[in-house]
Amino acid sequence: MALTNKIGVISDSFKLPLREGLQKSKELGADGVQIWATQGEMDPANLNAAARKDLKAYLDSIGLEISALCGDLGGHGFQDKEANPAKIEKSKRILDLALDLGTNIVTTHIGLVPDDTGDPIYAEMQDACGQLARYASSVGGYFAIETGPETATHLKSFLDSLGSKGMAVNFDPANMVMVTGDDPAKGVHTLKDYIVHTHVKDGLRLREADPRAIYGSLGYKPMDHEEIARMVSAGEFFRELPPGEGAVDFDAYFQALQDIGYTGYLTIEREVGDQPEEDIRKAIQFIEAYRKRG
User: Cα separation of 43 and 18, whole Å?
Assistant: First the structure.
């Protein structure tokens, strides 16, 4: 099994100013980057047409692509009827920015999908995600839901109900093993019709947890990325580890991606640790070893 997929890096992981993070990603050997685009200088509202053109030219000049933008707006995802109109509008603008920068993928968390399809929250999420899916399809793009809060089977059922491939999947194998205990390789086959972007991340599930305690839920608590990072660091429910050191079977995961004909990015995500550069360097080397097989 020799991988031919391009390698991406979430450049924000370096905790450097934007262009320094981009330079570092290129220096370590990445082909592309995933960038958060919800606030600060990457907020679509803060990037006019000239600034977008300038950033795209800079990326081209250093030989980097954007694998995806991260448009995760946190909170309760798209569970909250009152908050959804503003979130839907901003999500559309993030996809517009993505297209201007050369990618058609925006990754996001949509909130925990209720098990009960009769739950009013389920219907609200269907409505919001349906709107986003239709918009994405109209402009040739995708909103890609990150795996983790629910099993692959349940997520596929929800996606099937939307009737549009504009709402797709950002497949994160570590989230699966750490939270639901799902098998990533089987999950790839289950979600094969929707996967447009992937993460390379590893981890261990230390004990079973209510997904609401991690990802939040309306009437419970909102999702908080800093709180998730704290849980990971404390080993409260799970532990994130460098690729190859956790419970993700990467031989099976990468083989599954090849089996379904996935040709997109393998993007490295490192959410914890005080040596992000060294961790990402090792992760790139880990993927490179698969690319050299044959």
Answer: 12
Give the mean pLDDT of 264-272: 88
DSSP string over 39-105: SGGGSGGG--HHHHHHHHHHHHHTT-EEEEEE----BTTT--TTTHHHHHHHHHHHHHHHHHTT--E
Report phi then psi at 77, rounded to 5. 60, -125
pLDDT-based confidence at residue 157 (cuts at 50, 70, 90): very high
Tell me the two tokens of residue 82. Answer: 């009152």
Q: Are 58 and 22 in contact (CB under 8 A)?
A: yes
Pair 11, 35: CB distance under 8 Å: yes
Q: How many CA atoms lie within 13 A of 165 on its CB side?
A: 9
Measured over all CA atoms, what is the biggest interatomic distance in the chain, rounded to whole angstroms?
A: 53
pLDDT tens digits, one per residue of 223-261: 777 777 777 777 778 888 899 999 999 999 999 999 999
Whether residue 16 is predicted with pLDDT greater than 70 in this model: the reply is yes
> What whole-number distance in Å separates Cα of residue 257 and Cα of residue 77?
27
Strands 142-146 and 105-108: parallel
0.90 exceeded by pTM: yes
pLDDT at 223: 77
Write the Ramachandran bin of 140: left for phi over 0, alpha for psi from -120 to 50, otherwise beta. Answer: left
Q: What residues does 144 pair with on adjacent strands?
A: 107, 168
Pairing of strands 238-241, 202-205: antiparallel
DSSP H helices in 140-224: 152-160, 173-175, 184-190, 211-215
Beta bridge partners of 105: 142
